[in-house]
Design brief:
By secondary structure, this protein is mainly β. The chain has one domain (2-82). The chain has no helices and seven strands. The chain has strands at 2-3, 8-10, 16-18, 24-26, 37-42, 62-68, 75-82. The strands form two sheets. The chain has a four-stranded antiparallel β-sheet, with no helix packed on it. Strands 5-6-7 form a three-stranded antiparallel β-sheet, with no helix packed on it. The radius of gyration is 15 Å and the shape is elongated.
Length: 96
């Protein structure tokens, strides 16, 4: 087993699992969060530190995207991004 971060582990069989509950989050290192739950909401519902009106900074709508474990609902990733960007920026683990 290899610890990826505080929330994810890479198992010897190549699957990515939640460190908290053991649920499979991704089938392999190339798509480590494929089985996670994705949720998107407007930035206006964020905490006060990030709730500024996006119109002051950009002409694009801003959203909060979160990815959570499907087993225990631990938040694995949070992004504050323009809403017209592709769903969930992709990342993968290096083979090196």
């Amino acid at each position: 087993m290899m610890k990826i971060d505080d929330n994810l582990e890479l198992k010897p069989d190549g699957t990515v699992t939640c460190s908290h509950c053991g649920a499979e989050v991704g089938p392999d290192r190339h798509n480590p969060m494929a089985k996670a739950i994705r949720h998107e909401r407007p930035s206006s519902v964020a905490e006060p530190g990030i709730r500024a009106d996006p119109v002051f900074f950009t002409d694009r709508p801003i959203v909060i995207r979160q990815v959570s474990c499907s087993g225990c609902f631990t938040v694995l990733l949070t992004e504050i991004v323009p809403g017209d960007e592709p769903q969930h920026r992709h990342w993968q683990l290096s083979d090196a």
